[in-house]
Amino acid sequence: MSRLRVPPSVYGVAWDADRIVKIGFSEYQRWRHFIGRGGRVIFVRQFAEFHSAITAEGVCHDLLRSLSFACPFRSAIDAEPYMGRGGGGWRECYAMTAEDALRAMDAVCPTALGAHAPSMCSEHVLRACGWQVL
Q1: 0.85 cut: is pTM over it?
Q2: How far apart (Å, rounded) are the C-alpha atoms in residues 104 and 71?
Q3: Nearest CA to 37 among 81, 76, 1, 72?
Q4: pLDDT band of 62, cuts 50, 70, 90
């Protein structure tokens, strides 16, 4: 699989039958790796700046953890069927459906995954989503 460079991106991949969602960051379309392991891409949000993408990924993880969505794996080895050899990224996975993930993120900030409605978002989330806050 080629490693085509893309703008800094935050992505979500779901394994629907197993109720697993992974949120991650990539500049090399890492989400493609998960498709070959049965995953389905549920969103990709590209950013102009590296820092904005990393911050947005952190916002997504903070949100899902605050809502008590647990990691479905006990270790990297448990995650290997989904994450690949070594299980890298296993702590960025949540026991939830794709719909739950999208609904949770959209409830906090519709801008995180696409359509912008800045009046609904905190300043921290607006910055993470790439908006300039004056």
Answers
A1: no
A2: 16
A3: 81
A4: confident
